[in-house]
């Protein structure tokens, strides 16, 4: 049984905990996390969701998930990345990019993080219930996937993409590639 801590619209815990799948009350939210992972070549790590996933099966996405009771957003992000693709990140290496309140009746607050890692996808251990495949894509490929919705998208995704490409990618590596 997975438990979720409930927070208010600012992300402050209310002290209430619910079981995954339970209904939320008015003004109640739960925190979800997303990890944008980039390498020195300016490539982005994306994953194809498993056909076994309840939501968005066989859809390309970034690593994301809901935090569990007792976790903060950083701990939840580290756990989700480890569980889904077997990559062990450290809390301290996560760069917080955004805090977004979803106003779509999902009752979610989206905490978005960036991590920089140079890893081989062949060294990752994928959770077959969550992830079917991972791959590195160039920034041009990811931008095209976002525009054509060939990856799970949401309203602020292109803003995050531009924030990362303009402020966090190694410009010398991009010129060499």
TrEMBL record:
GO molecular function terms noted in the UniProt entry: hydrolase activity
Name of this chain's protein: NUDIX hydrolase
Domain Nudix hydrolase positions: 28-159
Database matches in InterPro entries: NUDIX_hydrolase-like_dom_sf, NUDIX_hydrolase_CS, NUDIX_hydrolase_dom
Organism in which the protein naturally occurs: Blautia pseudococcoides
Keyword Hydrolase: yes
Keywords of this entry: Hydrolase
Alphabetized SUPFAM superfamilies for the sequence: Nudix (SSF55811)
Keyword Hydrolase found: yes
A Pfam family of this chain: NUDIX
């Amino acid at each position: 049984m997975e438990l979720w801590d409930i927070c208010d619209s600012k992300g402050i815990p209310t002290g209430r905990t619910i079981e995954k799948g339970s209904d939320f009350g008015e003004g109640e939210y739960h925190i979800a996390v997303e990890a944008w992972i980039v390498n020195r070549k300016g490539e982005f790590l994306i994953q194809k969701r498993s056909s076994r996933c309840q939501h968005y099966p066989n859809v390309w996405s970034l690593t994301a998930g809901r935090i569990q009771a007792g976790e903060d957003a950083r701990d939840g992000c580290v756990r989700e990345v480890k569980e889904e693709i077997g990559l062990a990140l450290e809390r301290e290496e996560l760069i917080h990019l955004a805090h977004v309140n979803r106003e779509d009746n999902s009752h979610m607050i989206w905490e978005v993080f960036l991590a920089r890692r140079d890893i081989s996808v062949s060294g990752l251990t994928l959770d077959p219930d969550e992830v079917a495949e991972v791959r590195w894509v160039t920034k041009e490929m990811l931008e095209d996937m976002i525009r054509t919705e060939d990856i799970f998208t949401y309203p602020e995704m292109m803003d995050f993409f531009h924030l990362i490409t303009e402020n966090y990618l190694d410009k010398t590596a991009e010129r060499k590639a």
